[in-house]
Amino acid sequence: MTDTSTPHADQSLDDEGTEPTAVNGDTEGTDEEPAPREKKTVGESELFRQSEIAADYVEGLLDILDYDGDIDELVSGGRPVVEVVGGRLQNLVGQRGATLEALQELARLAVFRQTGTPSRLLLDVGGYRATRRKELAAVAKNAVEKVKEHGEPVRLEPMSAFERKCVHDVVNAMSGVESESEGVEPTRRIIVRPVD
Questions:
Q1: Phi, psi values for residue 189, rounded to 5°
Q2: Is 176 helix (H, G, I), strand (E, B) or coil?
Q3: Contact predicate 188/181, CB 8 Å
Q4: Residue 178 exposure: Cα atoms within 13 Å on the Cβ side
């Protein structure tokens, strides 16, 4: 029997099953910042279709909310991407990106409803993800400095899968330290520790 139900947020539709493995084998989200824009090729046609479906969904939402924004749909880094740019869009991001994450899930569900295939769609509003990635890189570097200075593990505040992925990437690129996640959503956090 085929399951035709809509996937829930905790299923692998979300990014959490696709992050590169951290030091301890933990996996997180892959809400990666889009790579430079790539031209559509035959192999990307389905991904581009997913971004078009999501863009139509987001456009309808903006119309209902009476928000103005330019919407770009593209394929970047092997995944469909929708970028919304314009003024007065901060409400679509919300505190620490919570609203943006919810909108991304809704857009993914809209894609799933039309295609029957889970999507790794990345939604960005007003360049929030790129800005947040830079902030998290600073947090990660600060934690690494503390670990190297004191030789003790540092526990960071709870973060979303996207945020944890950003921190893991920075920490794992540095020598003498490692990172792992602990806890359960929504209080899942990263521990940075010296390498034994």
A1: -140, 170
A2: coil
A3: yes
A4: 10
Supply the DSSP symbol for 194: E
How far is residue 180's CA from residue 172's CA, in Å, rounded to a whole number?
A: 10
d(CA 70, CA 110): 19
pTM: 0.70
Long-range contacts of 92-99 (CB under 8 A, 24+ apart): 92/67, 92/125, 92/126, 93/125, 93/126, 93/128, 96/160, 97/128, 97/129, 97/132, 97/160, 97/162
In tens, the pLDDT along 5-63 reads: 434 333 333 343 333 333 433 444 444 444 444 444 435 899 999 999 999 999 999 99
Structure tokens at 94: 């919300």
CB proximity list for 78: less than 8 A, separation 6 or greater: 47
Other beta carbons within 10 Å of 6: 12
Q: Round to whole Å and give the CA distance between 18 and 12.
A: 8
For residue 48, what are its two tokens? Answer: 């581009």
8 A C-beta contact, residue 124 and residue 82: yes
